[in-house]
Give the backbone structure.
Amino acid sequence: MARTTVPLTLDLLETLDAPCRSCLFWEREPVHRDGLTGPERAREKEAWISEVLREWGSCGRVVLVDGVPVGYLLYAPPAFVPGAGAFPTAPVSADAVLLTTAWVRPEYAGGGLGRLLVQGMARDLVGRDNIRAVEAFARTGRAIPRAGTSTECVVPVEFLARVGFKTHRAHPRTPRMRMEMRSLVTWRGEVEAAWERIVGVVRRPKPAPTPVSRETGSPRT
C-alpha cells in the first residue's frame, strides 16, 4: 500500500468526502457564514483556500493511499483564521501558524496517516520566515454537532499529543496546544534520512561479474 502526502489543491479538496469540506467554522466570521447554503459554503471554502495560497503559500496537505485522497489537514497564519477568536484560549501566539483541521477517513484511522500529514506540514513550514511553532485548538471528549458547522473540524487532543504537541494554555474543553518548530525540523530530518536510506538501497550498484578466462572458460583468480 503506497502512502504519500502532497500539497492541498482545490482539485484535491473537491475529491475529499470530508465532513469539514464545506465547514466555515475557522475561515469566516459567524455573521458571514450563518445562513449560507451548503453549495455556498463550499464555494466560500474554496475562495478562502485560494486567498491563502495566493497571499501566503501552501496551507494544507492531502494524504494519498494508492493514489486516492483519504485525508487532509489545513494550517494558516492566525490573521487568515477569524474563527479562532471564538475560543476561550485565544489568541494564537504571534510566532505561530495555526493548525485548524486534520481529518482521515474512518476506515484508515490508526494507520499513521495523521502523523504522515503532520510530517508533510513540517516540510512545508521549515524555512519560512518568522515561524517558530505550530499551535492548535484541541477538543477534549466527543465532537458536538452545531448548526452549519462540525466540531469534527476541531482536532482531538489525543491526536495532537501523539504527534508531539504540548499544552500551551490549559482549558477543560478546548486547550491550546503547541509544537515548536525545532520539533518539526527533527521530524523532517528523520523522514528525509529514512528516505535517503531507502533510495540508497534501491540505487546500490550490483557487484561486477568475475571475468572469465577465454582459454579455460573458468573465472580468473
Residues 144-150, 198-206, 212-216 have pLDDT under 50 and may be disordered. Helices lie at 10-15, 30-33, 38-55, 113-125, 157-162, 181-203. Strands lie at 3-7, 60-65, 68-76, 96-104, 133-139, 155-156, 166-169, 176-180. The CA atoms of residues 12 and 69 lie 7 Å apart.
